[in-house]
Amino acid sequence: MSTKMVALSFTLFACACSNGPSAVGDGASGSGPLASSGSAGISQVGGAASGSAAGGASSSLGGASMAGAGGPGGTASGAGTSAGGAGSAGGASNAGSTGVAGGTSGTSGAGGGSVIDATCGGTNGTATNLKDKYAGCFPIGAAVDSQSYMTHGPILKAHFNSVVAENDMKFNALEPNEGSFTYTNADKIVDFASSNSMKVRGHTLVWHSQNPSWLFTGATKDTLIARMKNHIKNVVQHYKGKVYAWDVVNEAIMEDGSYRSGSGDEDKKSHWYEIIGPSYIAEAFRAAHEADPNAKLFYNDFYDYIPAKQQGIYTMLKGLLADGVPVHGVGMQCHLNIEPSTKTDNQGYYQSVENLEKAIVLYSSLGLEVQVTELDLSLYIPGVSYTKDTFYTAATFTDALELKQANRYQAFFELFRRHRNVITGVTFWGIADDNTWLSEFDSGRKDFPLLFDNNHQPKKAFDAVMNF
Ligand code: G3I
To answer: Which of 59, 116, 205, 303 is the most exposed place for a label (fewest CB within 10 A)?
Structure first.
């Protein structure tokens, strides 16, 4: 495993709090329209939450208010309605949500006409696989590699109707040398998907990570823009009509809402921003649209539940749309944990259903689609230090822990289902626990974050998202 991987893992599990110097509009330092103080609706696992988006200060949000979703063991309270939302998100309902502890399901509240129904799996007891269960809601995807059709073929075909390449469509994979494109592995994924009627998401065209060394070497602003455009043009045209949606730009915003800039640790800084400035984002979207006008173009990022970060993303997207940049959706990665951090100085502290709901409401108020793009649910709690003797094993992944994981999955799926009017895809970052990036640690730390176990058998988490 590479140093980069260790560092990235640290980013996701610990607190990546670096403050980039460059502000994203008025979202910098968390002082955007929603001025997220973090006080509304933030609850820990087990707590009932009720909160409202602060102040309705954003005109495009139309003063949406949200009722809290009950965490595992909690109860839902309140019945909020979102009034007069703009764009396609208008009237997205945030009515009282379902308590899920112990697998008991409540009812979705009234408020926006968003009642769980047979077309979205809610009462469809006959479905036995994920893709049928959620057929009325959204496609169910999995991150794969070029061997997955052999290593995980049966469950992949049985449960998923969408795939994304976990690594094989990244810049270093597709253009390892300038002007020389290597599509072999990615093509295997696309061919498998097309023979099995699966949709394909493309991940990712422009990212600060996993780039070939030649890309930034000796680059001026003009040469880097030219290299970026050439890459996007070749890749997007190669997959025209086969890849329906692209993560065009990945992880450009920091946790405080500022742009990921050219300063800070090497593995976290963006050479794109450093050399081109923030305009690289608009340039990338325009190039992708030119290469395939029918592809849906997404901005993709993690930690969407952090108030300042979701505000920064919102402000950036609003600016792009105002400038006529072809952005169609937002990808929320959703690398989740079994419970939020209890430490207020850890970004995982904000990881609640209700905070993620705020992101969905905020993004969709711009008329954008929302997708869950990299879903998994780690057993490890952010901010906690684990020693080798506390790493989970098959033996210590107890029934109780499995149930806890299942309940948390169900709580988030309840949220996704409730917002199915704007959520157009839910993709897991892997297929089964035997192959997950979360276990790719030098330390040998094993994780169990998906719906299927090491032997590709359904876990309690699978039952939890199927049986409610
Ligand atoms: O392909 C090489 C292989 O040849 C070599 O033998 C091996 C030894 O280390 O490394 C292999 O490359 C690794 C690659 O995964 C494929 O397994 C890289 O070192 C490793 O860094 C890379 O990790 C990927 C990571 O992105 C890179 O930053 C993870 O698999 C992948 O799950 C992860 O995915 C990211 C998303 O793209 C963006 N959002 C966060 C998400 C999780 O970190």
So the answer is: 59
